[in-house]
């Protein structure tokens, strides 16, 4: 960075790159975006070249350089100091990153993880409304999908595929119990009229030994309750959406034909 010297040879660490960015931008700078999200424990971040996104007061006359993005703003957040690094609150950090991603799957993944970690939807919507409108279309769409019931990036993609199918809307994340009150499952989508459960099953998660046994037991409970189940890999929601939508329609038709509507 201009005016910043690393006093040893070799490649600087990420922490040193953050420190260099803060030294360059001055004492009022606050880290936001991907670097802040990582330091606050989020993992659903794209494997892009490392960069440090800083917020500085609007009156500061400084521009980005090298691995540093400098954003001048009249909405300086009150920082959270973690191991000596001033970080923007998580909602601000997440949306500052989302505005620059431009990829629906990446935006959905990051926002979903933030919600799962406890950031409220109202906080995210408020931050989205308060900030710049540039780059907000995709984050806003993803937040509305999450608000409708999705709690993961895969479920956001599933809602998009469902809309392509033309089928009645399923109940999202609806807990199912049998007549005696025993738990059956909580499918990602459930078509009540035909008793069809739609499960978005991650290969990595469900096919380790323990998770595989859990999936087999779940499918057994579905069968015992007379509920049909369609399993879909999350990657196919993005790579083969039309084919998955067709499979969903076929499964719905088959469930109706076997008497699910009764």
Q: How would you state the average pLDDT, rounded?
A: 89
| Beta strands, count | 11
Extract low-pLDDT stretches: 204-208
Shape: elongated
Which bin fits the share of residues in helices? 40-55%
Widest β-sheet, arrangement of strands: 6-9-10-11
Largest sheet: 4 strands, mixed
Note the gap between the termini: 70 Å
Helix-strand string: HEHEEEEHHHHHEEEEEHHEHH
Radius of gyration: 23 Å
Structural class: alpha+beta
Strand content: 15-25%
Explain how this protein is built.
The chain contains eleven helices and eleven strands. It has 262 residues and is an alpha+beta fold. Strands 6-9-10-11 form a four-stranded mixed beta sheet, with helices on both faces. Strands 1-2-3 form a three-stranded mixed beta sheet. A hairpin with a 4-residue loop joins strand 9 (189-191) and strand 10 (196-200). Helix 2 (33-39) crosses helix 3 (90-101) and helix 3 runs antiparallel to helix 4. The longest helix is centred in the C-terminal third of the chain and has 17 residues, at 241-257. Residues 204-208 have low confidence and may be disordered.
